[in-house]
Amino acid sequence: MLVSAKEMLDKAKAGHYAVGQFNINNLEWTKAILQTAQELNSPVILGVSEGAGKYMAGYKTVVGMVNGMLEELNITVPVALHLDHGGYEACYKCIEAGFSSIMFDGSHYPIEENVAKTKELVAAAHEKGLSIEAEVGSIGGEEDGVIGMGECADPKECKMVADLGVDFLAAGIGNIHGKYPANWKGLSFETLDAIQQLTGDLPLVLHGGTGIPADMIKKAISLGVSKINVNTECQLAFAAATREYIEAGKDQQGKGYDPRKLLAPGAQAIKDTVKEKMEMFGSVGKA
Ligand code: 13P
Prior knowledge:
Blueprint: H1 6-15, E1 19-23, H2 27-39, E2 44-49, H3 50-55, H4 59-72, E3 79-86, H5 88-97, E4 101-104, H6 111-127, E5 131-136, E6 141-143, E7 146-148, H7 155-162, E8 168-171, H8 189-199, E9 204-206, H9 214-222, E10 225-230, H10 232-247, H11 259-262, H12 264-281
Parallel strand pairs: 1-2, 1-10, 2-3, 3-4, 4-5, 5-8, 8-9, 9-10
Antiparallel strand pairs: 6-7
Helix pairs in contact: 2-4, 2-12, 5-6, 7-8, 10-12
Bound molecules: 1,3-dihydroxyacetonephosphate.
Binding site for Zn(2+) 1: 85, 177, 207
Keywords: Lyase, Metal-binding, Zinc
Active site: 84
């Protein structure tokens, strides 16, 4: 059964490790992530962006697929199904569809509006037993070929949003989605430290987990990060393994064109990536 992410993240914060949020794109992704979590006895969060939800034929389809796998694959570790960077309406749709956690990303609104909408959604999520993440500051990333550096969160605004009763908080600290550019300045630990000073026990979330070096990840965890989001790295690993299979001509040997064979190396690459991250984040054996 799906669980809210609150308990697993409170435990992670107290135990000084982080739980990975791995974004899913299809059945192979979901299965690879769930099997790895089970093998490593680790809690896990499956992230679904609005775009991925649409791609997978809607939130209800995703809920059906994930619930089916939990049962048929005998997954007993804690699993949360979480809307990633949800808009106002998507949050309500996911609450309805059976997700166990949502993120409301109101970071592009003026802070007053972010606060008002977050407050309303906290009540709606908690009423149905879901956990909720909010965002302050912006997380950079590539848009139309330009890499935005994001905007560091104001610790006072973080405190304001934390006080609304959110279960965990994403704050921009120089992190960006996708690959980091060569001139990236690194994470702002000063900002992270100031945020934790004001928000206390609240688990903090680090987006853009792809490509952040292990020493920075460890330092971020020591300063209160308890959830780390990874998406692009699984996509790169999947694409590289699939390319290797095709370039070796394996799809043209025997029944190598069978999707169950063709997608197998990519699925294994996702498993290897998830394992590496869970070990780095310290969540192995914490289920
Ligand atoms: P990456 O794609 O950079 O790993 O970021 C994932 C993320 O933060 C999803 O919200």
